[in-house]
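Standup notes
- HV: blocked on the assembly model, inputs below
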Amino acid sequence: MRWSELQSNVRDALHGLFYFRYEQDLRAEAIELNDLFLLMCYMEMVGLPNPVTLYLLEVYPHLLSEFHLWHRRMGVDRSPVANIRCC
Amino acid sequence: MLLAENRKAARRLLDKRILFFGGKGGVGKTTCAAAVALAASREGQRVLLVSTDPAHSTSDIFERRFTREEREILPNLHGLEIDADFEAGRYIAEVKEQVTKMFSPAMVGAASRQIDLAAAMPGVGDVALFDRLTTIVAARNSAYDLVVFDTAPTGHTVRLLQMPEMLRTWIDALTAQRRQAVERDAITRDDGGEDEPDPIVAALERRRDRLDAVRRRLVEHRDTSFVLVLIPERLPIEETSRAAGALAEAGIEVGAVVVNRVLPDGLGGEFYAARRRQEEVYRREIDHRFKTMDRIVITQLESDVYGLNRLERISAQILG
């Protein structure tokens, strides 16, 4: 093993040791924030009007894939909403 | 004397680039908007008269069909009738086309269904109408010197003009939320989030920029003005006064108040005298309540207004 390789491995190990928890928290937070974002986009489904619905249509395919990730994360295999057929 | 005052106020209006006509239903908004548009076109300005009224009254006045696409009605005067349902359909078709270009067929199928469902929701017509309005208002090199909007009754119009504000609040909230999530996610990636920009944030920001352009046009520019039409009666006075308040709150300038259908001088009879006395009270009240705005006074004709000849007589009262 070359010295530079060893150096890099040690750096990665230390990074993992110190940042693992931190990154996990960040990822969890990102997911939570994005879920809230999704809820804001799909507010009609919970009975609240959303005036920008028409403007969100252009990004609907993106929202669909996000929605797909969400219901998988929630442990539901197929889309739980009849209107939204992401899979 | 009346004519001189009218002319002075009308001059100021014709110097603007965009005029919105609003007022309570049935007070003669369409007639006044048409008369002002006609007067401006006769002076050699290139004018676009836009109707958002599904009742086709503008077509009836000019006895020429106003269509969903701009067309020449008279020399220098183009007409357009915005149809909210048609605009919604057009917007949906555009979105679908865009989606088809950007995504896989499976995704397009799923998204298409969702888009059709969303298109059937109430309120979509309003947003589409506003979108079309936006295109006209924010046009950079307009082919017209003056665009006159004949809008639906007051409440609806004021709501429409408050839309940039409301939509902007929503878009800002969505963007902030999405951006936070994307940023958190990016930190945890090895490349530190040197990705291409998030497409959702990009789309929302494009929208926001367009709304800002409209808002600047409506609020900051001195060349956009709102004209409120009323008749000297209790209910229109109250409603117009509320509309003026709401517009002021939204930062939109009210350029003039048109007092329409004023009784002509020199008629006899008890009924006329009584009406006239009451009208004088209301006219004084209008002068008092709208004293910061220009006033244009239009006297009733002996017949209703349709057809170019009679419209010209209204135009003549405004601009001489």
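- HV (later): unblocked. Chain A touches chain B at residues 23, 26-27, 29-31, 33-34, 36-37, 40-41, 44, 49-65, 83-86 (CB under 8 Å). Residues 3-73 of chain A form one domain.
- Next: hand off to the docking folks.
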